[in-house]
Amino acid sequence: MAHSKARVTDGKVTYPPGVKEISDKISKEEMVRRLKMVVKTFMDMDQDSEEEKELYLNLALHLASDFFLKHPDKDVRLLVACCLADIFRIYAPEAPYTSPDKLKDIFMFITRQLKGLEDTKSAQFNRYFYLLENIAWVKSYNICFELEDSNEIFTQLYRTLFQVINNGHNQKVHMHMVDLMSSIICEGDTVSQELLDTVLVNLVPAHKNLNKQAYDLAKALLKRTAQAIEPYITNFFNQVLMLGKTSVSDLSEHVFDLILELYNIDSHLLLSVLPQLEFKLKSNDNDERLQVVKLLAKMFGAKDSELAAQNKPLWQCYLGRFNDIHVPIRLECVKFASHCLMNHPDLAKDLTEFLRVRSHDPEEAIRHDVIVSIVTAAKKDLSLVNDALLNFVKERTLDKRWRVRKEAMMGLASIYRKYSLQGEGGREASKQISWIKDKLLHIYYQNSIDDRLLVERVFAQYMVPHNLETTERMKCLYYLYATLDTNAVKALNEMWKCQNLLRHHVKDLLDLIKKPKSEASSKAVFAKVMVITRNLPDPGKAQDFVKKLAQVLDDDERIRDQLETLVSPSCSCKQAEVCVRDITKKLGSPKQPSNPFLEMVKFLLERIAPVHIDTESISALIKQVNKSIDGTADDEEEGVPTEEAIRAGLELLKVLSFTHPVSFHSAETFESLLGCLKMDDEKVAEAALQIFKNTGSKMEESFPHIKSVLLPVLQAKAKRGPPRQAKYAIHCINTMFTNRDTHFAQIFEPLHKGLDPANLEQLITPLTTLGHLAQLAPEQFAAPLKSLVANFIVKDLLMNDRVPGKKTTKLWVPDDEVSPETLAKIQGIKLMVRWLLGVKNNQSKSGNSTLRMLTAILHSDGDLTEQGRMGKPDMSRLRLAAACALLKLAQEPCYHEIITLEQYQLCALVINDECYQVRQCFSQKLHRGLCRLRLPLEYMAVFALCAKDPVKERRAHARQCLVKNVNIRREYLKQHAAINKLFSLLPEYVVPYTIHLLAHDPDYVKVQDIEQLKEIKEALWFVLEIIMAKNENNSHAFIRKMVENIKQTKDAQSSSDPKTNEKLYTVCDVAMHIIMSKSTTYSLESPKDPVLPSCFFTKPDKVDAHILLFVTGTNPKSANVLGAVNKPLSSAGKPIQSKASRMETASNDDPSSNPGSPQRSKTRYKTCIAQAHSANPSSNPDVNKSLPCLSVVDKDTKSHPVPDVQVL
């Protein structure tokens, strides 16, 4: 090299052979030609050519002169750059240039030439590529490590390469760029922040989206240099995250984006950075914590991420943010859950508990997103979510916010459709979510109309999609119905009934609109609009829209005709779709995309359109049932035993016969049902009879050939069939045939003559049939029925015990173990009651005689003869039959008014019967009569006695019954102007009846006994808690006023008995204590002066000392007793056990029943009868004497829907 330096001083430049001097005196073209020859020479040289290296040293120095480095022609510059690249290759490892400034100029010059790589279609691209390849292979830039300005050179090189890379470059270009840049990082002593920024900036999302190739280049570079560059990356994040020095780099604001990208590129780049994030998760700055949470959500949730397993402390710290105080952070964590569940099922266990807590978050948006996260994962793959997560969604279907409930219901519906209806995931997945269908239908029990409408929509779109072909749709419905639980079946039946009722309301509205205009018709239209409004969401707004719809229907005949078609019983599913589409199209407007009126109309049309059931559908459904009967159905494949499928199918048909009777009107359907009648299965035949009863009103004229075959079958069923079939056969004849009297006579005569008390088993069906004939045609068989009831039913059947009962300690046995004699006696009781209900008057005093008979059965515990020959289960059955018969008669005004208070109280005590099943069945019958507004209001007071029931479920059921009855009556009063029936409907009026009933409770013996008074208090609170739950129109003051008024009266049942009146006043005092302790408004002025029922209380006294008890406190003894009683009240339904408990705690048909379990005390009944005799001896003849003959009465007395309570 010393020789070379000597040559340099000579200044003589030697050119390759054939190349003349290259100077500014030649043309550009000539210069390019000569340079190409020089390039060729250097290309052919290698490092071992020492002579040539020495020969061309001055040429190498000449080419690095400013003349070439700053030449204006790009071709010249390119050729010079190629020469210089080869020179560095040839003279390596020592470059011929010693000046640091010259080296900087040369490398900056080469870097500028690399910009030519950008145009891949350029004619010179290959030379640019050669330049890149050469410097990358030789690692020429490594010479710059010793220069002070090396960072500037490297930074400019990196920027140039990131700028020029594009999608036109092949893999080789990409590879050489990575080689060139990686050698600088890996072999250099340091990486400056500026150089690091030049690489990292390409990872920032904004840059990444602008130049994907630059991102890929940076990604490849970082992967290649991960080990070498990691300390510098760590230092950068330390400066920004831990020390807060954001000025160290312009990328400080993108630090979290960079961490994510670097983690995705190579997690080893962040080995020392990730622990810093744990510190940031605990920052006091909400925004900073939120940024870190968003970052980690992406890192933990990434598909192939192993961060949770690799860094468990960070994972646990992140999970803690699910409980962060800042709402957006909790929301972000919940959103992350779906990605985590989908990409990392193994982390579901860790997430479950945190999602459970967040599913109860006070923020609606968070609860909503919990559902979205779980449902999203479940829809991707059901195995990703465990049962606990699905249960969180299930719970949210009862959320207080509609948006959350809707999301939960729609989420469950979509999961059900995918895995159960469409069969994705196989039978195991379908089994796992089999509960969803039941849960969705259970929501129909909610009071919100929005919930009910959504259930209807879910059913029509997800559970039994209406767009399926008819056969497939009915098959889907068939197996769905067969697999629903009992409550879901009831909800579905209720849904169809509600839709059917709304269809009738719309049809009524259409009929009213077509009538001539008048003030009365306008009022009728308005009333019907209000009824329809209550069946739509947001009734306040819906009212205006329904009024507008009524006006549209009045003006537009075409829309009116289409709506009439839609609500017509004969409308088919296809017609319904066309009508709905046409109506919405007609009412819609393209100029008004958001149309609240149209949305309301769509809601209405959704509810009334028969999209599932029509004549064709019923025919397909019956064929499906027949397939199951024939054994050709897919019952086992669907997971339903054939017998269950058949019974469920017939039950389904029975329900649809109520809601869609016209759809059954086809010869094919009736013939199939006729075939079912002839089957041996009693349930199948019974269901077919019920369907005929509901749908056969026009059979005689429309299907005479069916009628002629059906009549003999019905007559045979009425005479010799099972009791329930006989019942429905009689009602079928009554419904279908015009000359029913002739057919009834053909059945009545042989049955009446053939009654034989010695053949008890053959008595049950005839008595059932005769009972229903007596109810349907009492005048036709007046004389025979009078004799039948008086002589056969009472004397021969009820007053005789022919067969001794089985000795057992059980109080109840299954239906199939009940003795034939007991079954016959029950049918005898029912026959008497049905006859009276058919007659509907008491002119012959038959009602009084029957009531005395029923009272005698109750008084004797069911053993009317009191000979001790009956078994306990039989006695329980007869007590229940007598009590239910009393309830039936109480629903008719003519019989309600003759029921004495003693008889009412005796009936009420059955709800405390010692037999669990008697209490259960009686309360159900009581509830049903009250819900229909048929039983008078005093019977609601009977539920107060349930506070003493030792079984928690019975108390809870009684409370539910009370709540429902109170709500029904309040709703009825809102919808009807029932001022004249206020006393029989207003729930607050149950308080006087409750006080009177409790005052006559046989367990209430000692007036001042604290334990007995505590029981009275619990029973009062059982009713008052529900009545006082709402203080509408100052009802608390009204109740207080009623109690005060009672204390100004006397007990009408025993007005002259001081002890009876004292009991009444004491119960009033207890009630007053409850009212005063539980209400803050009781002392206000009562809105109205309450009126007490005159049959329970005498007229008020002007002045009476007993009213002063709770006013002046002049009775210290009584006050002290009440003070002892007035402890904090329990929640409704607290178990109260009297000293002589009369009720079993467990089910009575349990074979392990203990003979020593609490027995039924006759004290209650004897006390009642004793009180009755002492109060009014003439009204209570000795029940052991022979009963007088029952006589026939007229049938023209009309039934009352809501009985009026007698008032002052």
Sum up the structure in keywords.
mainly alpha, disordered C terminus, nucleus, PDS5 cohesin associated factor B, mitosis, single chain
Secondary structure: elements and pairs:
Blueprint: H1 2-10, H2 28-44, H3 50-55, H4 57-63, H5 66-69, H6 74-91, H7 100-113, H8 125-138, H9 150-164, H10 171-187, H11 193-200, H12 205-210, H13 212-224, H14 226-242, H15 255-265, H16 274-280, H17 286-301, H18 307-310, H19 312-320, H20 327-343, H21 348-358, H22 364-380, H23 387-396, H24 402-421, H25 426-432, H26 435-442, H27 449-463, H28 470-483, H29 486-514, H30 519-533, H31 539-555, H32 557-567, H33 573-587, H34 596-608, H35 615-630, H36 642-659, H37 667-677, H38 682-695, H39 699-702, H40 704-720, H41 723-736, H42 740-753, H43 764-776, H44 782-798, H45 820-839, H46 846-859, H47 872-890, H48 893-896, H49 901-908, H50 916-931, H51 952-975, H52 982-985, H53 990-999, H54 1010-1027, H55 1035-1046, H56 1058-1078, H57 1109-1112, H58 1116-1125, H59 1163-1175
